Amino acid sequence: MYVETAKLFIIIVITVVTLYLLLKREIECIRLGKKDFKCRKCGVCCSFLIFLNRADIERILKLGYKEKDFSKKILWFNILRKKDDACVFAKEEGTYNGNKGSERAKEIVCKIYENRPQTCRKYPSLRFFGIKANDNRCRSFNE
Ligand code: SF4
Ligand code: SF4
């Protein structure tokens, strides 16, 4: 009886630890979901993989950009093109004052801010299991 209980206890501990390790990022993001967000203009998120939907592409085309210059295909998805490890629309400007966020000397601004893709508009807001979360890679939360 004692041995059976000990085995069950070990299985429960291993399961909980494994689940925690697998969901560590999601748990952290959900915790950050309650925090206020203030963009530091560090440009970190502008180096991520950004998906484009058709409405995003149409909106950007209307600004006079050619699709091949800002969009590329990965399998059947359209993603934003990059240049120097950042989105082609990311532009360095002024002096960077958000000191904790980046090694960059300048702020990163978006050349198409009013027409930026849906993914950029929502960032860093996420949903995990229907729960509001914030992406823990966003420098706004790195105090
Ligand atoms: S990572 Fe966060 S703080 Fe930095 S530019 Fe993106 S949204 Fe703003
Ligand atoms: S479109 Fe603008 S906000 Fe979105 S990744 Fe590019 S520079 Fe950043």
Task: Characterize the structure shown.
By secondary structure, the chain is of the alpha+beta class. It has one domain (2-141). Helix content is 33%, strand content 21%. The chain is built from five helices and nine strands; from the N terminus they run H-H-E-H-H-E-E-E-E-E-E-H-E-E. It has helices at residues 2-22, 24-32, 54-61, 67-70, 118-122; strands at residues 51-52, 71-74, 77-80, 82-83, 86-87, 90-93, 107-110, 125-128, 131-134. The chain has a three-stranded antiparallel beta sheet with strand order 1-3-2. It has a two-stranded antiparallel sheet with strand order 4-5. The chain is elongated. 19% of the residues are buried. The model has no long low-confidence stretch (mean pLDDT 90). Bound molecules: iron/sulfur cluster (2 copies). One iron/sulfur cluster binds at residues 39-45, 101, 123-124, 138-140.
The average pLDDT score comes to 90
- Tally the helices: what do you get? 5
The 3D shape can be described as elongated
Strand order of the largest sheet: 1-3-2
N- to C-terminal distance = 50 Å
Number of domains: 1
**Cofactors, ions and other ligands in the entry:** iron/sulfur cluster
Runs in which pLDDT lies below 50 for 5 or more consecutive residues are: none
Quick description:
The chain is of the alpha+beta class. It contains 5 helices and 9 strands. The structure holds iron/sulfur cluster (2 copies).
